Amino acid sequence: MKNKLWYKTLLCWFWGLFIGSIVIAFITMTLIAKGIVGYLPPLEELQNPKNSFASEIISSDMQSLGRYYKYENRIGVQYSDLSPVLIDALIATEDVRFYEHTGVDFKSMFRAVLKLGRAGGGSTLTQQLAKQLWSPRANNIIERAMQKPIEWVIATKLERLYSKEEILLMYLNQFDFLYNAVGIQSASQVYFSTTPSKLKIEEAAMLVGMCKNPSLYNPMRYPERAIGRRNTVLSQMEKYGFIDQNTRDSIAAIPLQLKYSSVDHKQGLAPYLREYLRGVLTAKEPKESNYSEWNKQQYELDKWQWDNNPVYGFCEKNHKPDGSKYDLYQDGLKIYTTIDSRMQRYAEEAVDENMKEQQKAFFKELKRKKNAPFSRDLTQQEVDGIMSRSMRQTERYRLMRKAGISADSIQKAFHTPQDMRLFTYERGLIDTIMSPYDSIRWQKSFLRCGFMSMDPHTGHVKAYVGGPNFTHFQYDMVTKGRRQVGSTVKPYLYTLAMDEGLWPCEKTINQPITLIDGNGKEWTPRDTHDKNQGDTVTLTWGLQNSSNWISAYLMSLFTPEQLVKIMRSFGIQGQLDPVISLCLGPCEVSVEEMVDAYTTFAKKGIRTEPLYITHIEDNNGNVIGLFTPKTHEVISEITTYKMIYMLRAVMDHGTGVRVRYKYGIQAPMGGKTGTTNNNSDGWFMCFTPSLVNGAWVGGEDRSIHFDNLAQGQGASMALPICALYLQKIYADPELGYTQEEQFDVPSWFDPNAGCKEELLK
């Protein structure tokens, strides 16, 4: 009798507690749903969960070049981009009744309670999504227990607002797979160098396995655990009929085959371009007061960009539907560039090949210099001044000054040897002992470069390399750096002459010439062609051999102001002093401006501005920016034909001829080499009917250079970059460039048609 009474009492208590728990749970859930208890995101936030998506830079051949992000490297994908095996693996492992429940799976929950958790935690994918989006990290088990009911309510609301496919997509886009791989797109790229649509079963299973605990099943640190968890996922897939046993067994035997690629903005294709675009897209409207007196020219250039370039300051000028500005780092923009990833790779390979050879020769020369890497022309005092300025510009110096360390102590610290890692071409980073002062000198010992290639007809920039190695030399010599252009300026002078009625076949005497400058002083340029002194030569000969005497003669026919004017029409924006020596190229110009200018010759006198971005889409695929190239008529077609004739002579018989005999490129091509005083700058510009290319090579400072002309001239330093690049371009039939392509010069054009019998005087 007592046993029956005890049993009845126990049964009453059990059902009382059970029903009471349900009532309490119902009341709690109702209060949470009404917003009376706990935090429930407002409906607007549930309808539009706030996600931070990285913006992606995409090449013209639809390859990802890189991403911009502040906190999380997350790229959103569409459901159609997900591999079916990925979905199967996720459902089989995390929520097999996903398509049956409405956010909370009470059946699975009760089973988990009755089996003390051995059947899983009973948490649905929708609940896990709610936790990812709105539950802060709990500090203890009580806080976590309080979060659970809130997640249940959020999960049921999510199920009403979204389809099952949308919930799966949000979950996979949201999950953090470690190593800056937030979301399935980044995870697929980081761990397997692929996309979600191309994941193999074993790859999908490994990534799904990480969803239980990414730190515990980290494949980089714990590969055995990752394999074990992957195989558990495969077993779940077999258990629920997504794969058969033979498939499971064969895949389970496959070793972990990662193709890991770390996320680092300094690595990957086109790092200089990506950094350039980042600065351009996020640029603020220039304020003159923010520029120092010595930098007013940069203000003028930036102001012009702000007023005329719709890409410059795009995120500042354009607004989202809610009125806020676009955020490059969190709004998931897709930036479609004109860069061809294959041509970019060829350009980077060409730069690397050439710079390794140049550096080897330069180091050999530096062994004979007392003040290496500086020229012998500098005094010790001048060298000390350059080094002192460079030391003060370092981050180490600024931090020490900010910390209040005395000048003497800083000097001592900079001259004290310590452990450090230095860059080399041969062995990569090496560990050594060197003073910070000497490390600055070592860094300066490396030559720098810039290269750009663009389509003159569309303005599309196909390749962009701002330096020899972005990790160690981040200063961009394509758009940021400006250096003296030397003889590559001469085609502008010859264009002026041709536009004024002269012809390539006009003759004059090759002899020294003295001009009087604006201050009444005599100016007589030196020339390397003194062996031809006194010869009767054509203007074509003068340009193909880069004769300074012939250039000075042409300068005598015009005013410096006329030369400045035509150079402006060619797109040269920097400082141009109207002096007679301008005809030899002492002006400082960027590689970008030079390539832009030379498009005029390839496009019948029409200059095409460089175009880096074709369009920009928001995170939903809507086009929010569409960009087209700007063109400018510079010279007449007949003048263009004259210049093509002479610039082809440079390549076929003049200073650019080694492109033919050394590199075997026979394509129709015009071009010009350039070398400045003391070999401080080496330039090479060349154009085919479809491409305009420009390269510069030199030291960080003008006092760092080859001492001998044979190695320091543009034909030796810069020409190989363009030649190696073109070799690779023509060797790839998929790109569509051919050496048989001809310039569009009409058959009736005769370069001798307008020549006079008498010599020019």
Explained architecture:
There is one protein chain. The chain is of the alpha+beta class. The strands form seven sheets. Strands 2-1-3-15-16 form a five-stranded mixed sheet, covered by helices on one side. Strands 7-6-20-19-18 form a five-stranded antiparallel sheet, sandwiched between helices. It contains 29 helices and 20 strands. β10 (515-516) and β11 form a beta hairpin. The longest helix is centred in the first third of the chain and has 33 residues, at 2-34.
**Structural class by SSE content:** alpha+beta
Uncertain ranges: 112-121
Largest sheet: 5 strands, mixed
- What would the average pLDDT be, to the nearest integer? 87
How are strands sequenced across the largest beta sheet?
2-1-3-15-16
How far the N terminus sits from the C terminus, by CA atoms, comes to: 136 Å
- Please work out how many helical segments DSSP would assign: 29
How many β-strands, per DSSP? 20
* Beta-strand content bin: 5-15%
Report the C-alpha radius of gyration, rounded: 34 Å
Give the helix level as a range of percent: 40-55%
Overall morphology? elongated
Q: What are the key terms here?
A:
alpha+beta; 761 residues; five-stranded mixed beta sheet; five-stranded antiparallel beta sheet; elongated
